[in-house]
Each structure stands twice: as C-alpha cells, then as structure tokens.
C-alpha cells in the first residue's frame, strides 16, 4: 500500500479517537492503486517511481518506498514522512544515495491539562493526491 493519511476516526461504541496513517511496505515494490478505503481519506502518495515488468508480459507502475521520523519536544510530536529521491527526473537510474524527499510533515500537540491532542499539517508535497485535504485537517 502507498503512504496514506486519514482524518480522525472514532471507534464505534467508544470515545476512542484515532488519527490513522499507512506508511507502506518498506522495501517491497507496490503497484500504484488508490487506497481500498476512501472514507476519511485526506491524501495518498500516487507518485510513480518506475514501471517494472510483470507476468504476463506487461508493465506495472510502482510507487516510492519510505519511512517516518518522530521528533519529540515536550508536548509536541513532529512527524516527517520521507521517501527516496530519484537521481534524475525519469528515475531510470535509481535513487540518490544521499538525498531524500520530504513527502509530508505534521505536528501533534498534547494539552497537558486536558489530555486533548491537536494535529496540524506543516507541509504536504504538491504532487500527492489530496481528495479530502484541507490546510488544517
């Protein structure tokens, strides 16, 4: 699956709220396809890394693999979602060994008195799909 961001979801029959994120499958090639669940979908990474041969002889578009980093500063968590960066515009020569692409960054802040959590987007790459995105989702 591709990197996907969803809006807040409340589990049925509870007061428990989640803020779902799907980061991806590590180093496995993934065919590009929209997320199976689109309810509450804010954005997803539909960028094509390369087209690779498949069986029967055809080509499949595959996406970028990535990871995330969390920086903790007091009541804040800053989460950066990062993918590889192509050596050239076509990506045919592979990925850079020294550079990466910041795909998105968000901050979660905990109110230490109430325990409430606020989320805000700091950055989102212009080239990813945004069916439900607003600046302060």
Core attributes:
about 140 residues; mainly beta; four-stranded antiparallel β-sheet; three-stranded antiparallel β-sheet; 11 strands; about 0% helix; about 50% strand; globular
Low-confidence stretches: none
For the terminal residues, how far apart are their CA atoms? 22 Å
Q: Give the strand line-up of the largest sheet.
A: 8-9-10-11
Helix content: under 10%
Q: What kind of sheet is the major sheet? A: 4 strands, antiparallel
- Molecular shape: globular
- pLDDT averaged residue by residue: 88
What is the number of strand segments?
11
Strand content: over 45%
Textual characterization of the structure:
The protein is mainly β and 137 residues long. Helix content is 0%, strand content 48%. It is built from no helices and 11 strands. The chain has a 4-stranded antiparallel beta sheet, with no helix packed on it. β6 (50-54) and β7 (58-62) form a beta hairpin. The protein is globular. The model has no long low-confidence stretch (mean pLDDT 88).
